[in-house]
C-alpha cells in the first residue's frame, strides 16, 4: 500500500458501515492490478479522510452525497449512495425533500431521474 494503512482501515470500516460489508468486499475482491490502487486510494481518501471524523454525522454526510451526486447526474453512484443513506437513517420523506432540492437547482429532468431510482430502491426495501 502506498498510502496510510490506518486511513485505509478507518475508511474500510466506514465504507462497510454505510454501503454494506458484502458490497464493499465484492468490489475489493473484483479489483485487479489495474483497478486495485484506485479502490484502495478511494477507500482511504473518501471514506477514511472524508468520512473518518465525527464533525458531521453519517446521516448528514449521506444527505450531502445524495445532493452532490444527484447534481452531477451520476445515477449508478446515486443509487449506491441512496442505499447507503437509508442504512445511515435517511427516511423516504428526507429522500423526497433532497430530490426536490436537486430538481430546483439542477433541473426537473434530473429530479425525475432521482425519483425513478428512489422509487425502485424504496419499494425494494418496503419503505414506500
CATH class term of the largest domain: Mainly Alpha
Summarize the helix and strand pattern as letters. HHHHHHH
CA gyration radius, whole angstroms:
15 Å
Query: How many domain regions?
Result: 2
Largest sheet: none
According to DSSP, the number of beta strands is: 0
Q: In CATH terms, what is the architecture of the largest domain?
A: Up-down Bundle
Q: What is the residue-averaged pLDDT?
A: 95
Distance between the termini: 43 Å
* Structural class label: mainly alpha
User: Spans with pLDDT under 50 lasting ≥5 residues?
Assistant: none
Q: Helix share of residues?
A: over 70%
Number of helices: 7
CATH superfamily of the largest domain: AhpD-like
Strand content: under 5%
What labels would you give this structure?
128 residues, AhpD-like, 78% helix, mainly alpha
Walk me through what this model shows.
It is a single chain. With 128 residues, the protein is mainly alpha-helical. The chain has two domains: 46 residues, no CATH class; 67 residues, AhpD-like (Up-down Bundle). It has seven helices and no strands. The N and C termini lie far apart (43 Å). The mean pLDDT is 95.
Short description:
This protein has seven helices and no strands.
Topology diagram in text:
Elements: H1 5-19, H2 21-30, H3 36-50, H4 58-72, H5 75-87, H6 92-106, H7 108-124
Helix pairs in contact: 1-2, 1-3, 4-5, 4-6, 5-7, 6-7
